[in-house]
Amino acid sequence: MSRRQLLLLSSSRVYGYKYLELAAEFIQQLLASNDVRQVLFIPYALKDHDKYLEIVKEPLERWGWEVVGIHQFKDPVAAAEKAEAFFIGGGNTFRLLKTLYDLNLIEVIRRRVLEDGIPYIGSSAGTNVATRSIHTTNDMPIVYPPSFEALNLIPFNINPHYVDKDPTSKHMGETREERILQYQELPEAGPVLGLREACVLCIDGDKVTLKGKNASRLFIPGKTPKEITPNSDLSYLLQKT
């Protein structure tokens, strides 16, 4: 079995950077080291697939990689079977996951990544669906996927765009931390990594490393949440609980 290779971004757009620019080094290294020539982009988290594809093409083709959209193929499963690398972008996680189920793409993507070692890049919603489930997405359930279970490329959950409580705010609603802790009251819940903006999770085989500009916040059921600084080793999260 080949090793899994994933880059999971909190967001493609980071303040002060162009689209995907903050993760450019990691993306280029991943694609170049696997001799990737063409990236298969999966735009199902947004409605306008063609427009989304053009946004993604600009940086990746400038860096030297051809990009094609899976929606351009009559048979998306066959396209996924032949893909050299996957990139799933952000948008609405429920719409994205439902479409992956509707088009029978869950199993083929999982197998290609976990068994064939095909590189996977996810951002925001694309990061959510790479995990065990979408229970910790921030998105509204605008459609109904048949299950919250996702690609399960990693055995823990992520909360992209994680934000901390603003002590100067008069908003009295629940914080992101409170919502994650509520999820972890469920007996089946496992670890959740609150991935702040400008963070990238790099997964190479059984090695998990936090990269980027900011710390992230790790929630493990029954334990006090803790800060995870860049370059920290999180490989222990791959141990299924």
Automatic annotation (TrEMBL):
Belongs to the peptidase S51 family. It is found in: Cytoplasm. SUPFAM superfamilies: Class I glutamine amidotransferase-like. This is dipeptidase E. Its main location: cytoplasm. GO terms for biological process: proteolysis. It comes from the Eukaryota. Keywords: Cytoplasm, Dipeptidase, Hydrolase, Protease, Serine protease. Its EC number is 3.4.13.21. One of its GO terms (cellular component) is cytoplasm. The keyword Transmembrane does not apply. The keyword NAD does not apply. It catalyses: Dipeptidase E catalyzes the hydrolysis of dipeptides Asp-|-Xaa. It does not act on peptides with N-terminal Glu, Asn or Gln, nor does it cleave isoaspartyl peptides. Pfam families: Peptidase_S51. It is an enzyme of class 3 (hydrolase). Hydrolyzes dipeptides containing N-terminal aspartate residues. InterPro entries: Class_I_gatase-like (IPR029062), Peptidase_S51 (IPR005320).
